[in-house]
Amino acid sequence: MTLSPSPVDAPPAAADILARARALAPHLRERAAEIENARRLPDDIVDMLRGTGVYRMGFNRDWGGPELSSTEQVEVIEALAYGDASAAWCAEIGSHTGLFATYLDRSVAREMFTDLDTITTGALFPVGRADRVPGGYRLSGRWTFGSGITHCDWVISGAFIYRDGEPEPSPDGDPHDSRLFMVPASDVTVIDQWHTTGMLGTGSCDYTITDVFVPEERSLSFDTVRDPSGPHTQPEAFMRYMPGIPLGVARAALDHVRELVTGRERGGVRWADNTKVQVTIAECEADLAATRHGVFGALRRLSEVLEAGGTLDDLTRDERAALPLSRLHSFRVARSIVNRLYDLVQTAAIHRSSPLDRWLRDTTTMCQHVFAQDRILQSAGAHLLGGTPEFRLCLGLVK
């Protein structure tokens, strides 16, 4: 199966990218076991994802990109996750190139991203070390969870800044400043230790960078927008599209079990007429519908504010907190739905040949991500109450 990339001079519309993602999903489902066994995305799958336009969907129209809205990007990721969670995860992470471009000078970004289907991945938390040198920094460190690191073009990594061997304070008073640094994938060493419960196909390996020179202009901070021409220049934008993955997996699991139930009998009684089956399916459908509504409702309200020229600061406390809370809820509800469906079909679910086995492991693993942790609840709750959020960035707070 091949999907040709759209030409740069004719960016696909949102509907085209979504249609391509939906068309690719059955093929991803067929190859899900292969993806998992490889513990990374095969090269031809990466090419197919490029062909959908998913990696360019964050580039704005000034770049010649399709400039998909936040809700449209979630729908694309959701469609891919319906086929395979790992492929969708890598696609979501890799599609942030257009977002990162807005935090770089336009001329620098144009030089770096000559192809709108460029894939960027990495780890944003500042765990590396960046020593100031003339013209830029010398970057070193080891980072974890480099999803898609085996097939990317650029790697973005967070690091603390040092000057003359000493921690450099930030202009706003932080005792140790940090920034994000972008290096070509060729400057990165991948450490193949990705053996996990689920999400195996993401290839989220550790990686190291050793004494690599990074020009000043290839560093960035989410509190400084260089190119504000697009709609996604708020500091939490890279988090918005992740709910598409659990939503897509939950939908796939429900459709699978509904089809399975339709053709089964037990003791001469159709499963479809079994009260427990009926109630479980109905409860799961209700939970998914409510959760999806929460995600898209929060994003639509945000879009209304941004399209009117506002920022995250123009949201009410409730509206702002709804963004990280809806993300977290999508992960936890998807895991709950898959668990209930797994229990419902009993021994038919325990074999590795069953997609429920993979969905169980995938949703369990993805719920270990920071976006699904109590740290998010604390931060949203603190914001609602006027307290101090532990993870400010999930609310788009950078100062």
Could you explain how this protein is built, in words?
One of its GO terms (cellular component) is cytoplasm. Pfam families: Acyl-CoA_dh_2, Acyl-CoA_dh_N. One of its GO terms (molecular function) is acyl-CoA dehydrogenase activity. The structure is a single chain. With 399 residues, the protein is of the alpha+beta class. Helices cover 43% and strands 16% of the residues. The protein has three domains: 14-112, Butyryl-Coa Dehydrogenase, subunit A, domain 1, CATH 1.10.540.10; 120-220, Butyryl-CoA Dehydrogenase, subunit A, domain 2 (Beta Barrel), CATH 2.40.110.10; 243-395, Butyryl-CoA Dehydrogenase, subunit A, domain 3 (Up-down Bundle). It is built from twelve helices and ten strands. Strands 1, 2, 3, 4, 5, 6, 7 and 8 form an eight-stranded mixed β-sheet that branches. Strands 9-10 form a two-stranded antiparallel ribbon. α1 runs antiparallel to α3 (43-52) and α1 (14-30) packs parallel to α4. The longest helix has 33 residues, at 275-307. The radius of gyration is 21 Å and the shape is globular. The chain starts with 13 loop residues before the first helix and ends in a 14-residue tail after the last helix. The model is unreliable at 2-9 (pLDDT under 50).
Distinctive features:
single chain, 399 residues, alpha+beta, Butyryl-Coa Dehydrogenase, subunit A, domain 1, Butyryl-CoA Dehydrogenase, subunit A, domain 3, two-stranded antiparallel ribbon
Largest beta-sheet details:
8 strands, mixed
Would you list the SSEs in sequence order as H and E?
HHHHHHHEEEEEEEEHEEHHHH
Protein structure class: alpha+beta
- CATH H level of the largest domain: which superfamily? Butyryl-CoA Dehydrogenase, subunit A, domain 3
